[in-house]
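Summary of Year 1 activities. Much of the first year was spent building the evaluation harness for sequence design. The harness presents a backbone, in tokenized form, and records the residue chosen at every position. We chose the following record to illustrate the format because it has been used consistently in internal testing since the harness was completed.
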């Protein structure tokens, strides 16, 4: 799950990736023994964890989403169950009696009556692992059940955090610390405590959990990101736009980054001609024209790359590392390029402007209007929804 806490702490977004998603896994190095794992293509996303640990999973997500990930928190099933026990149980709901069990031994063994039940211990573990019995018996349905569980657990944690019993609060803190594996940036009780305070600023009604838009892969057994819709979700997260649609659109000026832009005349910019399309030849000299435009605006180190002819549907600004993000955003602001078109890329060595097919002429870029609404999906949960109920597959009821 990818969790994004908004810069102003007004909302939180959580995007699940189905375990069966086929992705490209980059080359990873195990930090414990320096073992190097070669890059892989079209492999299940959960394979990444076994190729050097959580760092490889983070790198895989960054490659897919083009989102910089600041931290990771890893918690196994037993850790989640211990949290459920510490808060006295997590309420979950099913719309019919359910027994997750098949004659061939498949199923988690979860057995619940219709309605809402507070679960902990073995039942909590069964709920999180249940695939056979929810909806169409897929990993997608299991992710929905996990969303319902997490939303409910967050509400329970908030209620417990307001209690006046120091002993109970200490027990909660100790349980949470023991259940988590985190990166060095969160590797102390103080840092985790500070993070929890930031998370608590978000109202539950502004917490949105969803599943990455997906479609079946060619073999029909695995899934892949649904091209346009998945990228749209990633863009919203990348640009700090709330998934519940209750945010104003952010401009390049409002986009926050720890990297400050250099002076305009110190920013090196390579301009590439990406105006070629399937039906049109590239506009001759377009990179040079736009480079001259940038020089005229004070970016005196802008220069055209006349050796590279690419095809880009829309104009993009790429940067290779976070220390150049501020420079890239500065160029975007001056040209009127939206932040959705400013992307980190290891394919460039410096700030690179790719003039796309949407800017074949003229000196003023007009960005196409973008829809910032979440793609319609029944797999979206609101953190304040206390009436969410999992649909039980009729073959697994009793």
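For this record, the design step produced the sequence shown next.
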């Amino acid at each position: 799950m990818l969790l994004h806490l908004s810069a102003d702490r007004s909302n939180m977004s959580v995007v699940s990736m189905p375990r069966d998603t086929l992705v490209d896994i980059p080359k990873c190095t195990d930090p414990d023994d320096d073992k190097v794992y070669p890059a892989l293509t079209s492999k299940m996303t959960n394979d990444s964890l076994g190729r050097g640990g959580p760092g490889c999973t983070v790198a895989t997500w960054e490659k897919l989403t083009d989102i910089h990930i600041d931290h990771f928190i890893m918690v196994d099933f037993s850790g989640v169950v211990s949290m459920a026990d510490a808060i006295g149980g997590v309420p979950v709901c099913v719309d019919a009696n359910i027994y997750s069990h098949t004659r061939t031994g498949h199923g988690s063994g979860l057995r619940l009556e219709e309605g809402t039940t507070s679960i902990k211990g073995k039942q909590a573990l069964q709920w999180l692992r249940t695939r056979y019995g929810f909806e169409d018996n897929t990993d997608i349905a299991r992710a929905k059940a996990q969303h319902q569980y997490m939303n409910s657990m967050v509400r329970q944690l908030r209620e417990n955090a307001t209690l006046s019993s120091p002993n109970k609060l200490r027990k909660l803190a100790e349980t949470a610390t023991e259940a988590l594996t985190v990166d060095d940036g969160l590797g102390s009780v103080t840092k985790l405590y500070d993070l929890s305070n930031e998370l608590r600023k978000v109202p539950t009604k502004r917490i949105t959990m969803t599943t990455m838009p997906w479609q079946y892969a060619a073999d029909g057994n695995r899934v892949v990101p649904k091209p346009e819709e998945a990228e749209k979700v990633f863009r919203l997260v990348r640009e700090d736009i709330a998934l519940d649609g209750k945010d104003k659109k952010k401009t390049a000026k409002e986009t926050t980054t720890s990297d400050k832009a250099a002076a305009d005349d110190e920013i090196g910019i390579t301009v590439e001609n990406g105006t070629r399309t399937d039906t049109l030849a590239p506009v001759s000299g377009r990179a040079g024209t736009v480079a001259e435009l940038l020089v005229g605006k004070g970016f005196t180190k802008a220069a055209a790359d006349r050796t590279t002819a690419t095809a880009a549907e829309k104009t993009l600004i790429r940067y290779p590392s976070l220390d150049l993000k501020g420079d890239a955003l500065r160029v975007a602001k001056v040209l009127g390029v939206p932040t959705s078109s400013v992307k980190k890329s290891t394919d460039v060595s410096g700030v690179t402007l790719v003039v796309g097919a949407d800017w074949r002429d003229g000196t003023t870029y007009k960005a196409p209007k973008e829809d910032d609404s979440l793609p319609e999906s029944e797999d979206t949960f609101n953190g304040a929804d206390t009436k969410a109920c999992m649909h039980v597959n009729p073959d697994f009821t009793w």
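The chain has a mean pLDDT of 88. Quantitative recovery figures across the full test set are reported in Table 2.
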